[in-house]
Design a protein that fits this description.
Elements lengths: L1 E5 L3 E9 L5 E9 L2 E6 L6 E8 L4 E5 L2 E3 L6 H13 L2 E12 L8 E11 L16 E5 L1 H10 L5 H6 L4
């Protein structure tokens, strides 16, 4: 194994793997910590999306909130923290909906999906704030409106499009 890139958000390794047929192949693997993907649901059933700039594709996107699980943090705690950081509200209810790999052909990132609800304001002294590189604008829409945003191309990330199939 050789780490060929070690960045702030992920690593790239070159490793040798034995396939089911017995042959060995050298492959590149993107190592990425697990993330939580949130479907914040208001009391009336509407969902909270966020708009943010994505430098990799050089555009703003509408998405469901998501973020990384910190070292020594469990997924439930990460879901609560990310919800507060990204939409400014704390969920009292968490429902874990499942977990899926984002791109298992080359990456080990596990995405853990949650429905979060019973949203309330955080305490005034809460340390949870958006990251320095995040300029986030929340917007509340119906599930049907969010699904229409997928069809129109307003929501372009796969995690959000998939998550909307879970509600």
């Amino acid at each position: 194994m050789a780490i060929v890139f070690d960045g702030r958000k992920f690593q790239v390794e070159v490793v040798t793997r034995r396939y089911p047929d017995g042959r060995e192949h050298e492959i590149e693997v993107v190592r990425h910590s697990a993330v939580v993907v949130l479907i914040p649901v208001e009391r009336d059933g509407r969902v909270v999306l966020i708009k943010q700039y994505r430098a990799a594709i050089e555009r703003e996107t509408w998405e469901l909130p998501a973020g990384g699980i910190e070292p020594n943090e469990d997924a439930d705690a990460a879901a609560r923290r990310e919800c507060e950081e990204e939409i400014g509200r704390v969920p009292r209810q968490l429902e874990r909906l499942g977990e899926w790999y984002s791109t298992p052909g080359f990456c080990d990132e596990l995405m853990i999906f949650y429905r979060v609800s019973d949203l309330h304001e955080p305490p005034p002294d809460s340390p949870n704030q958006p990251d320095d590189d995040e300029l986030i604008e929340p917007r509340v829409v119906t599930v049907d409106e969010a699904r229409a945003m997928v069809r129109r191309g307003d929501i372009v990330d796969l995690k959000s499009a998939f998550a909307l199939s879970l509600v």
